């Protein structure tokens, strides 16, 4: 099954490479980048991503998610920091990536930054929200323990 998907992706890549640049659009680029990311082919995805003449929120988030799924949160953050105009999907991708990799403090900082840029707390996705709550609960228990020690 996996081998079959890889073979299909390779065939799509060969076909895509033959399509003249003037006939490629943001959708065709996005499909290829996301396909590579979905199959763990981050290097191929990154190569196409860097070649793209224009990028939309979808492809930025696809790259962030791809790196986070592989545990490369620092590289995901580098991608995030390059986004010229961020939307809610981009913010949630980065916050969730931090959360899924156990970086709750960083997720919380991103959550706060997201709010400071005009996005409300109810707009964050469930995984990021749960991580934020867990962080506050953890910090509260540390405070309570230190108070009991007094």
TrEMBL record:
PPR repeats lie at residues 25-59, 87-121. Keywords: Repeat. InterPro entries: PPR_At4g14850-like_plant (IPR046960), PPR_rpt (IPR002885), TPR-like_helical_dom_sf (IPR011990). GO terms for biological process: RNA modification; system development. PROSITE patterns: PPR. GO terms for molecular function: RNA binding. It comes from the Eukaryota. Pfam families: PPR. The keyword Nucleotide-binding does not apply. This is Pentatricopeptide repeat-containing protein. It comes from Corchorus olitorius.
